């Protein structure tokens, strides 16, 4: 009788232990599941997160190509595992350079328009800004099979007339200016100075994303490895900028541009 009681008591004691043990096991299984789910939901690297304050994103924009350096710049970026945004002059997209533009797009870089002529008089005084962008958009579409809406206005969006702004908005163009000017023309032949200039300016950026302006030159090509290193050391991740990005940056401070 005593023995039977001991057995029953032991069983009774064992039940809570089993319950606690089972629930612990299930919980840890849940955690594992959540972990797996979270890692799956992480956005791929090339997708630009919405706010710089959350992720510290920087954009490297390379203007005035395609030049003879474009292919090498695309390869240098690839080697560093980063992507940039190229603002191209339509009249330069000829011959071999068409292939370079295709390669840049295929590698995940963003391609934007920078007018056909880059001629301030034609674009702003003679009102050719929108017609030139339309022409370039058609040209890029035939090359890349993609309707591109991203624009960098030569010399900045400051020069556009109210009518041109209105037309750009009607056409759903996105105008991206810049907030870090490398002044690479000033440091011609000295790529390390270009890197230093950008590095110093990066310290001012805590809340909004830096949009760095360089030009498609041999200096930029040479600067890429140390520039990427410097940007990473400042805690930024480089992303290409596409027209559907929620982050707007233009000198007119227009949220619809
Ligand atoms: Zn330019």
From TrEMBL:
Classification via Pfam families: Polysacc_deac_1
Residue span, NodB homology domain: 56-239
Protein name per the record: NodB homology domain-containing protein
């Amino acid at each position: 009788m005593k023995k039977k009681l001991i057995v029953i008591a032991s069983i009774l004691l064992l039940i809570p232990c089993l319950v606690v043990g089972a629930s612990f096991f299930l919980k840890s299984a849940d955690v594992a599941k959540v972990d797996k789910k979270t890692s799956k939901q992480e956005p791929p690297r090339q997708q630009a997160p919405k706010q710089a304050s959350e992720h510290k994103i920087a954009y490297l924009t390379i203007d005035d190509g395609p030049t003879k350096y474009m292919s090498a710049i695309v390869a240098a970026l690839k080697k560093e595992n980063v992507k940039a945004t190229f603002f191209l002059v339509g009249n330069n997209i000829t011959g071999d350079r068409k292939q370079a533009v295709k390669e840049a797009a295929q590698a995940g870089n963003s391609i934007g328009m920078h007018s056909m002529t880059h001629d301030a008089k034609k674009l702003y005084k003679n009102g050719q800004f929108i017609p030139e962008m339309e022409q370039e958009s058609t040209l890029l579409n035939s090359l890349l099979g993609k309707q591109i809406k991203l624009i960098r206005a030569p010399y900045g969006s400051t020069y556009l007339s109210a009518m041109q702004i209105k037309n750009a908005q009607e056409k759903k163009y996105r105008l991206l200016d810049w907030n870090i000017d490398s002044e690479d023309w000033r440091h011609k032949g000295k790529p390390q100075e270009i890197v230093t200039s950008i590095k110093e300016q990066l310290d001012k950026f805590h809340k909004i994303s830096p949009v760095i302006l360089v030009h498609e030159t041999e200096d930029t090509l040479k600067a890429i490895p140390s520039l990427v290193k410097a940007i990473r050391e400042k805690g930024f991740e480089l992303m290409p900028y596409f027209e559907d990005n929620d982050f707007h940056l233009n000198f007119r401070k227009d949220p619809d541009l």
